Amino acid sequence: MRYAIQLIRSVLFNLAMYIALPLVGLFYLPWLVVSSKGAIAGCHRYCIIVVWLLRWMVGIRCEVRGTPPTGEALIAAKHQSFLDVLLIYHAVPRGKFVFKDILKYAPVVGQFGLRIGCIPVKRGQRGAAIKKMLADVKSGTALPGQLIIYSQGTRIAPGVKAPYKIGVGALYRDMGQPCYPVATNVGVLWPKRGFYRVPGAAVVDFLPVIAPGMPVDEFMKKLQTDVEARSDALAVEAGFHG
Asked: Does the residue 242 lie in any domain?
Protein backbone atom coordinates (compact mmCIF):
# COMPACT_ATOMS: atom_id res chain seq x y z
CA MET A 1 0.00 0.00 0.00
CA ARG A 2 2.80 2.43 0.90
CA TYR A 3 4.50 1.75 -2.45
CA ALA A 4 1.25 2.35 -4.34
CA ILE A 5 0.67 5.67 -2.58
CA GLN A 6 4.22 6.82 -3.29
CA LEU A 7 3.86 5.78 -6.93
CA ILE A 8 0.70 7.88 -7.27
CA ARG A 9 2.44 10.83 -5.65
CA SER A 10 5.38 10.34 -8.02
CA VAL A 11 3.17 10.33 -11.10
CA LEU A 12 1.37 13.47 -9.92
CA PHE A 13 4.71 15.15 -9.27
CA ASN A 14 5.90 14.39 -12.79
CA LEU A 15 2.69 15.80 -14.24
CA ALA A 16 3.06 18.96 -12.16
CA MET A 17 6.72 19.33 -13.18
CA TYR A 18 5.96 19.06 -16.89
CA ILE A 19 2.97 21.40 -16.64
CA ALA A 20 5.10 23.99 -14.84
CA LEU A 21 7.72 24.02 -17.63
CA PRO A 22 5.64 25.70 -20.39
CA LEU A 23 3.94 27.98 -17.85
CA VAL A 24 7.28 29.32 -16.63
CA GLY A 25 8.47 29.55 -20.23
CA LEU A 26 5.49 31.65 -21.28
CA PHE A 27 5.74 33.91 -18.24
CA TYR A 28 9.41 34.72 -18.84
CA LEU A 29 9.24 34.77 -22.66
CA PRO A 30 8.91 38.57 -23.06
CA TRP A 31 11.95 39.15 -20.83
CA LEU A 32 13.89 36.40 -22.61
CA VAL A 33 13.34 38.11 -25.97
CA VAL A 34 15.01 41.34 -24.85
CA SER A 35 17.70 39.99 -22.51
CA SER A 36 19.50 36.79 -21.55
CA LYS A 37 18.80 37.82 -17.95
CA GLY A 38 15.18 36.85 -18.54
CA ALA A 39 16.22 33.34 -19.57
CA ILE A 40 18.50 33.00 -16.55
CA ALA A 41 15.76 34.21 -14.19
CA GLY A 42 13.22 31.82 -15.75
CA CYS A 43 15.55 28.84 -15.41
CA HIS A 44 16.26 29.62 -11.76
CA ARG A 45 12.53 30.04 -11.06
CA TYR A 46 11.78 26.64 -12.61
CA CYS A 47 14.46 25.04 -10.42
CA ILE A 48 12.86 26.58 -7.32
CA ILE A 49 9.42 25.28 -8.31
CA VAL A 50 10.62 21.72 -8.95
CA VAL A 51 12.58 21.59 -5.67
CA TRP A 52 9.49 22.77 -3.79
CA LEU A 53 7.25 20.24 -5.55
CA LEU A 54 9.71 17.45 -4.77
CA ARG A 55 9.64 18.08 -1.05
CA TRP A 56 5.91 18.68 -0.85
CA MET A 57 4.69 15.91 -3.15
CA VAL A 58 7.18 13.05 -2.88
CA GLY A 59 9.31 13.76 0.19
CA ILE A 60 12.66 14.44 -1.51
CA ARG A 61 14.75 17.08 0.25
CA CYS A 62 17.37 18.75 -1.92
CA GLU A 63 20.75 19.78 -0.57
CA VAL A 64 23.78 21.52 -2.08
CA ARG A 65 27.06 20.93 -0.27
CA GLY A 66 30.49 22.44 -0.71
CA THR A 67 31.19 25.85 -2.24
CA PRO A 68 29.78 26.48 -5.74
CA PRO A 69 31.74 28.91 -7.94
CA THR A 70 30.51 32.44 -8.51
CA GLY A 71 33.12 33.51 -11.08
CA GLU A 72 34.30 32.06 -14.35
CA ALA A 73 34.85 28.32 -13.87
CA LEU A 74 34.49 24.86 -15.33
CA ILE A 75 32.14 22.49 -13.51
CA ALA A 76 32.77 18.78 -14.19
CA ALA A 77 29.81 16.88 -12.78
CA LYS A 78 28.41 13.43 -12.26
CA HIS A 79 25.11 12.99 -14.13
CA GLN A 80 22.45 10.61 -12.80
CA SER A 81 19.09 12.22 -13.58
CA PHE A 82 17.37 15.48 -14.50
CA LEU A 83 17.47 16.48 -10.86
CA ASP A 84 21.23 17.08 -10.78
CA VAL A 85 20.80 19.40 -13.78
CA LEU A 86 18.41 21.54 -11.77
CA LEU A 87 20.39 21.51 -8.52
CA ILE A 88 23.74 22.34 -10.10
CA TYR A 89 22.27 25.08 -12.28
CA HIS A 90 20.45 26.74 -9.40
CA ALA A 91 23.58 26.63 -7.21
CA VAL A 92 25.53 28.97 -9.51
CA PRO A 93 24.68 32.46 -10.79
CA ARG A 94 25.21 32.00 -14.55
CA GLY A 95 25.40 28.32 -15.41
CA LYS A 96 25.51 27.06 -19.00
CA PHE A 97 25.70 23.45 -20.12
CA VAL A 98 27.39 21.46 -22.81
CA PHE A 99 24.28 19.59 -23.98
CA LYS A 100 23.08 17.27 -26.75
CA ASP A 101 22.38 19.08 -30.02
CA ILE A 102 18.87 17.62 -30.27
CA LEU A 103 17.84 19.47 -27.09
CA LYS A 104 18.04 22.83 -28.83
CA TYR A 105 14.88 21.83 -30.71
CA ALA A 106 12.97 20.91 -27.54
CA PRO A 107 10.17 23.37 -26.64
CA VAL A 108 11.15 25.79 -23.87
CA VAL A 109 14.30 23.84 -22.97
CA GLY A 110 15.95 24.60 -26.30
CA GLN A 111 15.06 28.27 -26.45
CA PHE A 112 16.03 28.99 -22.86
CA GLY A 113 19.14 26.81 -23.07
CA LEU A 114 20.55 28.65 -26.07
CA ARG A 115 19.69 32.02 -24.52
CA ILE A 116 21.64 31.29 -21.33
CA GLY A 117 24.66 30.24 -23.38
CA CYS A 118 24.42 26.44 -23.51
CA ILE A 119 26.62 24.77 -26.13
CA PRO A 120 24.89 22.17 -28.33
CA VAL A 121 27.07 19.20 -29.27
CA LYS A 122 26.29 16.69 -32.02
CA ARG A 123 27.07 13.10 -31.18
CA GLY A 124 30.61 12.33 -32.33
CA GLN A 125 31.48 16.00 -32.85
CA ARG A 126 32.35 17.12 -29.34
CA GLY A 127 35.89 18.08 -30.40
CA ALA A 128 34.57 20.52 -32.99
CA ALA A 129 32.13 22.02 -30.48
CA ILE A 130 34.91 22.53 -27.94
CA LYS A 131 37.07 24.31 -30.53
CA LYS A 132 34.19 26.60 -31.47
CA MET A 133 33.42 27.37 -27.84
CA LEU A 134 37.03 28.28 -27.11
CA ALA A 135 37.11 30.49 -30.19
CA ASP A 136 33.91 32.23 -29.03
CA VAL A 137 35.40 32.82 -25.59
CA LYS A 138 38.53 34.36 -27.09
CA SER A 139 36.52 36.59 -29.43
CA GLY A 140 34.23 37.75 -26.61
CA THR A 141 30.98 36.42 -28.10
CA ALA A 142 30.36 33.75 -25.47
CA LEU A 143 28.33 34.64 -22.40
CA PRO A 144 30.34 34.71 -19.15
CA GLY A 145 29.52 32.24 -16.43
CA GLN A 146 30.09 28.72 -15.19
CA LEU A 147 30.39 26.09 -17.92
CA ILE A 148 28.86 22.78 -16.79
CA ILE A 149 29.91 19.57 -18.50
CA TYR A 150 28.98 16.01 -17.61
CA SER A 151 32.26 14.14 -17.55
CA GLN A 152 30.80 10.79 -18.66
CA GLY A 153 28.68 12.35 -21.37
CA THR A 154 25.36 10.86 -20.27
CA ARG A 155 23.34 9.74 -17.25
CA ILE A 156 24.96 6.93 -15.30
CA ALA A 157 22.97 5.02 -12.68
CA PRO A 158 24.39 4.66 -9.15
CA GLY A 159 26.80 1.75 -8.89
CA VAL A 160 27.46 1.64 -12.64
CA LYS A 161 30.95 2.51 -13.87
CA ALA A 162 31.61 4.27 -17.17
CA PRO A 163 34.67 6.03 -18.59
CA TYR A 164 35.22 9.76 -18.30
CA LYS A 165 35.36 11.53 -21.67
CA ILE A 166 38.58 13.30 -22.62
CA GLY A 167 36.56 16.37 -23.68
CA VAL A 168 36.43 17.57 -20.09
CA GLY A 169 40.22 17.35 -19.94
CA ALA A 170 40.54 19.39 -23.14
CA LEU A 171 38.28 22.09 -21.72
CA TYR A 172 40.24 22.17 -18.48
CA ARG A 173 43.53 22.51 -20.36
CA ASP A 174 42.43 25.11 -22.91
CA MET A 175 40.16 27.30 -20.78
CA GLY A 176 42.75 27.82 -18.06
CA GLN A 177 40.01 28.14 -15.43
CA PRO A 178 39.55 26.41 -12.08
CA CYS A 179 37.54 23.19 -12.24
CA TYR A 180 34.91 22.31 -9.67
CA PRO A 181 34.18 18.57 -9.53
CA VAL A 182 30.61 17.71 -8.51
CA ALA A 183 29.45 14.42 -7.00
CA THR A 184 25.83 13.40 -6.49
CA ASN A 185 23.44 10.70 -5.30
CA VAL A 186 20.26 11.95 -6.99
CA GLY A 187 19.95 8.79 -9.08
CA VAL A 188 19.13 6.77 -5.98
CA LEU A 189 15.98 8.83 -5.39
CA TRP A 190 15.21 9.94 -8.95
CA PRO A 191 16.29 7.11 -11.29
CA LYS A 192 17.28 7.82 -14.88
CA ARG A 193 14.21 5.90 -16.04
CA GLY A 194 10.71 5.50 -14.65
CA PHE A 195 8.34 7.71 -12.67
CA TYR A 196 8.85 6.39 -9.15
CA ARG A 197 10.53 8.83 -6.76
CA VAL A 198 12.05 7.65 -3.48
CA PRO A 199 11.79 9.89 -0.39
CA GLY A 200 15.12 11.02 1.07
CA ALA A 201 17.91 13.59 0.78
CA ALA A 202 19.12 14.32 -2.77
CA VAL A 203 22.60 15.84 -2.67
CA VAL A 204 24.96 17.53 -5.09
CA ASP A 205 28.38 18.11 -3.55
CA PHE A 206 30.85 20.65 -4.93
CA LEU A 207 34.23 19.10 -4.15
CA PRO A 208 37.51 21.00 -3.57
CA VAL A 209 38.49 23.01 -6.63
CA ILE A 210 41.18 21.76 -9.00
CA ALA A 211 43.40 24.69 -9.90
CA PRO A 212 44.33 25.20 -13.58
CA GLY A 213 47.67 24.00 -14.91
CA MET A 214 47.65 20.32 -14.00
CA PRO A 215 48.67 17.89 -16.78
CA VAL A 216 45.54 16.53 -18.46
CA ASP A 217 46.17 12.88 -17.59
CA GLU A 218 46.69 13.74 -13.91
CA PHE A 219 43.62 15.96 -13.96
CA MET A 220 41.45 13.21 -15.45
CA LYS A 221 42.65 10.67 -12.90
CA LYS A 222 42.03 13.01 -9.97
CA LEU A 223 38.63 14.09 -11.28
CA GLN A 224 37.39 10.54 -11.73
CA THR A 225 38.80 9.30 -8.42
CA ASP A 226 37.35 12.17 -6.40
CA VAL A 227 33.92 12.27 -8.03
CA GLU A 228 33.35 8.51 -8.10
CA ALA A 229 34.43 7.98 -4.49
CA ARG A 230 32.25 10.81 -3.21
CA SER A 231 29.26 9.82 -5.35
CA ASP A 232 29.49 6.23 -4.05
CA ALA A 233 29.58 7.52 -0.45
CA LEU A 234 26.59 9.78 -1.07
CA ALA A 235 24.66 6.88 -2.62
CA VAL A 236 25.21 4.78 0.50
CA GLU A 237 24.09 7.77 2.58
CA ALA A 238 20.85 7.80 0.57
CA GLY A 239 20.26 4.08 1.20
CA PHE A 240 21.80 2.54 -1.93
CA HIS A 241 23.39 -0.84 -1.37
CA GLY A 242 23.89 -1.82 -5.06
From this structure: no
Reduced to 3 states, what is the DSSP secondary structure of residue 151?
Answer: coil
Alpha helices in the chain (DSSP H): 2-34, 36-53, 82-91, 109-115, 126-139, 166-175, 186-189, 216-237
Instruction: Look up residue 209 and give its amino acid.
Output: V
Positive or negative torsion for Cα 71, 75, 81, 82: positive
The rounded distance, in Å, linking the Cα atoms of 215 and 219 is: 6
Q: With DSSP H G I counted as helix, E B as strand and the rest as coil, what are the percentages for the chain, rounded to 5? A: 55, 15, 30
pTM over cut 0.85: yes
CA-only gyration radius of the chain, Å: 18
Q: What is the structure's pLDDT at 194?
A: 87
State pLDDT tens for residues 201-214.
999 999 999 999 99
Q: Which residues, at least 6 apart from 197, have a Cβ–Cβ distance to it below 8 Å?
A: 6, 9, 10, 13, 54, 58, 60, 189, 190
H or E element in which residue 78 lies: none
Report the pLDDT averaged over residues 99-121: 89
Which amino acid, one-letter code, is at 206? Answer: F
Tally of domains in the chain: 1
CATH of the domain at 221: 3.40.1130
Contact between 66 and 206 under an 8 Å Cβ cutoff? The reply is yes
Q: Cα dist. 120→34, 69, 95, 96 in Å?
A: 22, 23, 14, 11
Asked whether residue 137 is domain-assigned, the answer is: yes
